[in-house]
Structures are given as structure tokens and as C-alpha cells.
UniProtKB/TrEMBL annotation:
Source organism, top-level taxon: Eukaryota
Species, as recorded: Penicillium daleae
Gene Ontology cellular-component annotations: nucleus
Taxonomic lineage of the native organism: Eukaryota, Fungi, Dikarya, Ascomycota, Pezizomycotina
The name this protein goes by in its record: MADS-box domain-containing protein
Keyword field contains Transport: no
GO molecular function, one term: protein dimerization activity
């Protein structure tokens, strides 16, 4: 009997993410009508998904800009930058100002509700007075 498998979590994560990526590629094609070409080249798996039956899709890399002048190309570093937290002090300042405003609004709402409930309790007769 062998010991714990150090690579098990990595394999499980890979399988789960690959399955999700494949499902999303198919859904994007099927539901949204997009033409999708997905190529996965990994030591654990080689996979190609092409939503089009035509061999002309996708066009060769050299002619992509000609076919799609508004093409938005992203590299690994471009995508990685989208997920990093903002380091811009102005954006952080705006974020915290908006959160503070929301907190003040919630506090005022809480005071209003508390006040309304305390006024309602003062107006309702107690059980002893209602029985008389």
C-alpha cells in the first residue's frame, strides 16, 4: 500500500477545470451561437474542440487580423493582470467612500425602522387595558 499521493489534488483540480472549460466552450457555441475553437495541450491531456465542421475555421494565425480587424488578443500576463487586486490609491479611495456611504444609509434605515417600531409599541394598548 502506497503513501499519500502528493499529485492527487493537482490532478483533481486539472480534471475539474478542464471539464468546466470544455462545457463552457460547448455552451458558448450551442447557446450563444459563437464559433469556438479550443486547444488544450498539456502533458495529461491533448484536446481540441471545434464548434464548426468547416476546416477553414479557425483561420490561420497569420490572417486573423485580416479577417477580424477588431480582434482582442490577450496573453497570459494580460489575463493575469485582470484578477489582481487594484493597487491604484484613487480606486481604493472611491471604493471605500462608496462603502462608507452605503454603511451610513444602512445605519439611517436601521434608526428609522427602530423608531417606527418604538412608536408602534407606544400606540398599541397593553393586554391589561384591552381586557377592561
Amino acid at each position: 500500500m502506497g503513501g499519500p499521493d502528493a499529485q492527487r489534488n493537482s490532478r483533481t483540480t486539472f480534471k475539474r477545470r478542464i471539464k468546466t472549460l470544455k462545457d463552457k466552450a460547448h455552451q458558448l457555441s450551442d447557446i450563444c451561437g459563437a464559433r469556438v475553437y479550443l486547444l488544450i495541450d498539456h502533458e495529461r491531456e491533448k484536446y481540441v474542440y471545434n464548434s464548426s465542421r468547416h476546416t477553414s475555421w479557425p483561420p490561420p494565425d497569420e490572417t486573423l487580423e485580416m479577417h477580424y480587424p477588431q480582434l482582442d488578443r490577450k496573453t497570459f500576463n494580460d489575463i493575469k493582470g485582470l484578477h489582481s487586486p487594484p493597487h491604484d490609491p484613487n480606486r481604493l479611495k472611491e471604493y471605500f467612500a462608496a462603502r462608507f456611504k452605503l454603511l451610513c444609509t444602512l445605519e439611517n434605515l436601521h434608526k428609522t425602522v427602530e423608531s417606527a417600531f418604538s412608536n408602534t409599541e407606544d400606540e398599541t394598548p397593553s393586554n391589561s387595558q384591552a381586557e377592561r
